[in-house]
Amino acid sequence: QQQVKQSPQSLIVQKGGISIINCAYENTAFDYFPWYQQFPGKGPALLIAIRPDVSEKKEGRFTISFNKSAKQFSLHIMDSQPGDSATYFCAALSSNTGKLIFGQGTTLQVKP
Amino acid sequence: DAGVIQSPRHEVTEMGQEVTLRCKLISGHNSLFWYRQTMMRGLELLIYFNNNVPIDDSGMPEDRFSAKMPNASFSTLKIQPSEPRDSAVYFCAMRGTRGSGANVLTFGAGSRLTVL
Fold first, then answer.
1. Number of other residues whose CB lies within 10 A of the CB of residue B63
2. Element (H or E) spanning B19, and its range?
3. d(Cα B81, Cα A110) in Å, to the nearest integer?
4. Structure confidence at residue B99 (pLDDT)
């Protein structure tokens, strides 16, 4: 069951550019939407997260935009840097079940 | 991932052999998750425990897979018999215990399994 759909599968951005990754969910019971960042050989690590009562959250160069009516959310990386090259996963959690469901992942490459 | 120690980091085995993956939590937590990562299917939730009890194992692919959590600091994922399609990276993760941390999963570094 693909409850969280993520796109694109891969993304190449020039240094200084904006990286945008999109996700859509189906289950309206989800009430927490984190993004995880994964470097090769490492486990995913929490990057930034948002709750559905907020339309936008910004932490440094990273911003989540959330559209509850469309059941979509996106990650924007401003001024992308080569060190941002990693795989990014969106996810959705239902507090009732405690299950965290991940999107398919996006491999980001930022070229110098 | 300092709080979640997985072993082995890499395992290569032959089809039909039993595989046991281990997860040790440095400080005990009441929620533990096992995920499997492949290129084709991404990160799949296999099973998760709360207070050492399996809550949802609907993601376990088939009866060849089993998981246990005998105490708050340790869990195993066993595959018997293993098959080449089980080749993947298996992650263990623990959940925070209070406040906003309760929704955060901390992952181990993973166990890369190759079944020949």
1. 7
2. strand B19-25
3. 41
4. 62
Whole-number Å distance between alpha carbons of A11 and B97: 35
Cross-strand bridge partners of residue B81 = none
pLDDT in tens, A61-101: 999 999 999 999 999 999 999 999 999 999 999 888 888 99
Q: Where are the beta strands (DSSP E) in A1-112?
A: 4-7, 10-14, 19-25, 33-38, 45-50, 56-59, 62-67, 72-77, 86-93, 100-102, 106-111
Q: Summarize pLDDT for B97-114 with one digit per residue, the tens.
A: 666 667 789 999 999 999
| Cβ–Cβ below 8 Å for B105 and A46 | yes
From B31, B43, B56, residue closest to A89, measured CB to CB: B43
Is B20 an interface residue toward A (CB < 8 Å)? no
Cα atoms in the Cβ-side hemisphere of radius 13 Å centred on A91 = 28
Answer whether residue A42 shows pLDDT above 70. yes
Inter-chain residue contact A98 with B31, CB threshold 8 Å: yes
Cβ–Cβ gap B1/A42 under 8 Å = yes
Burial call B92-113: b when 16+ CB within 10 Å, e when fewer: bbbbeeeeeeebbbbbbbbbbb
Structural contact between residues B49 and B55, judged by C-beta atoms closer than 8 angstroms: yes
